[in-house]
Design a protein that fits this description.
A two-stranded antiparallel ribbon has the order 1-2. By secondary structure, it is mostly helical. It starts with a helix and ends with a helix. The chain is globular. About 45% of the residues lie in helices and about 10% in strands. It has helices spanning about 5-20, 25-35, 90-100, 110-115, 115-125, 135-145, 165-175, 195-210, and strands at about 65-75, 80-85.
């Protein structure tokens, strides 16, 4: 699979993911490139040669179990070899969906609230997604080199877009914890139901009570 074919493989799903998670497609594509080596370094089960379909280097156990291999980590500024378990999937689609859900964890809230791909890349590095101290720089360079930001652009027929000031408010509310799900960012023009208004008000009250 050549570079453009790989980009397109991830880009189609990344653009759909934006609807639900608001993760920049360019970031998803750049991570897939960097973590999987353009799909050529996807973890493979040593005994059977079975692919894990893991495009994003996520460790643990996935829908299809796990693959145990040696991988490079950076510890105290030095590159070391560690044996780790990586999640295994039944196909690339599962890997991409799991990646989006993985970034929905509270630890990555600044990735979802980022205003630019560069900010999202920096947030990924600061949240500890990878041990590489140059992780954000490498992602940003990939985005620039392969013009991946083009996949962040949508026409009027694509995903619903909002004025920048509305997105800023929505992202700030998400970052501050008043909104608990990125799904609310798709509803910025919709009236909030009473229960949602009450939930936000109660979170604000809780934050006020936390102050000394």
């Amino acid at each position: 699979m050549d570079a453009q074919a790989f980009i397109q493989l991830v880009a189609d799903h990344a653009r759909k993911t934006y609807l639900s998670y608001r993760i920049f497609p360019s970031i998803i594509i750049a991570q897939a490139i960097l973590e999987s080596g353009w799909g050529k370094k996807v973890p493979v089960e040593p005994a059977t040669g079975t692919s894990s379909y893991n495009l994003f280097g996520i460790k643990g156990t996935g829908p299809a179990g796990s693959v145990t291999i040696e991988s490079k980590e950076v510890e105290n500024g030095k590159t070391v070899i560690r044996t780790s378990q990586f999640r295994a999937y039944e196909n690339y689609q599962q890997s991409m969906e799991d990646h989006a859900q993985f970034l929905s964890k509270p630890a990555y809230k600044n990735v979802l609230a980022a205003a630019t791909p560069a900010q999202a890349a920096q947030a990924l590095e600061e949240a500890g997604y990878a041990t590489d101290p140059a992780y954000a720089e490498k992602l940003t360079r990939l985005i620039q080199t392969y013009n991946l930001s083009q996949y962040d652009q949508f026409t009027s027929e694509g995903p619903q877009t909002f004025p920048p000031w509305k997105l800023e408010l929505g992202n700030r509310a998400l970052q501050e914890g008043f909104l608990t799900s990125t799904e609310w960012l798709n509803k910025l023009d919709e009236p909030m139901p009473v229960w949602a208004v009450l939930a936000v008000a109660l979170r604000l009250l809780d934050k006020q009570r936390e102050k000394p």
